[in-house]
Amino acid sequence: MITVTIWLAIIGFIDDYIKVIKKDKSGLAGKFKVVGQVGIGLIVGLTMLFHPDITVRVTKAEAIAKNYEIKETFTTKYTQVGKADKEVEMAYVKTTLTNVPFFKDNNFDYNVLLSWLGDNASKFIFILFVPIIIFIVTAVSNGANLTDGLDGLATGVSAIIGATLGILAYVSGNTIMADYLNILYIPGSEELVIFAASFLGACVGFLWFNSYPAKVFMGDTGSLTIGGIIAVFAILIRKELLIPILCGIFLAETISVILQVSYFKYTKKKYGEGRRIFKMSPLHHHYQKLGMHEARIVTRFWIVGIMLAILTIITLKMR
């Protein structure tokens, strides 16, 4: 997490330096930003796959049945009401398992997507898994960057997301809660709660001065880093498939830009004149053009962000 923070902060700082100090409004070329995001995504993906300490806990029987790479085994006791304690053999394994929201049996293994390779699927999983991680890191980082357009918008939304990730990290690192909620127990993820708390504190402290009318601005140094932190945090606790819900604001902002640009290019090519879906993109600027006050837009986006965060937490039991 510290590596991700420093890596993306440097990329964002270079962009801001070119814009502010060098007086070049174009900033760092987009391709160099993407190269930096892809680079850190590659590091995260390979680390997740090959670092021996990044494991999840499953039953030993499941580990053997699904041919997981077992790192450690142990026996644990489960207390049953009115019955004798039940002993179960457990194992810490290297796997690409992740949690899927809304499904009863909510564990999904990326290896399934390569099942046509038979027993060789696990050997070639990096071909699929690493690009997925790169895409998630790049998409969320850019989504946060696009959201940073109004005073306090990206900061407030990110604080809400950070608090939610902290809760998810806590339950994922607590054996009792992980068993009760039927989610993957991630050894060491309780340490991420400290990082989440620091992240939340930094966002709230910054929001004190960034709220309307803002006295300080985060620029790409902040927004690119915040997006990368959120993406990698979710990946580490195996909740990356919750990102479309939890980071729904980032997703809406990104989609609004994609739709606007695509439709403009399509209509220009077909009719000789570019047309727009929104008055302006990203989405928050559309509401500005409709005459809504900046502070109201930001507050309403925060409210939506809180509702999405609650929905994300509810998915732990809503299946």
Automatic annotation (TrEMBL):
The keyword Transferase applies. It is an enzyme of class 2 (transferase). The chain crosses the membrane at residues 32-50, 121-140, 152-172, 192-209, 216-237, 243-266, 297-316. It is a multi-pass membrane protein. Keywords: Cell cycle, Cell division, Cell shape, Cell wall biogenesis/degradation, Magnesium, Membrane, Metal-binding, Peptidoglycan synthesis, Transferase, Transmembrane, Transmembrane helix. The gene is mraY. Its EC number is 2.7.8.13. This is Phospho-N-acetylmuramoyl-pentapeptide-transferase.
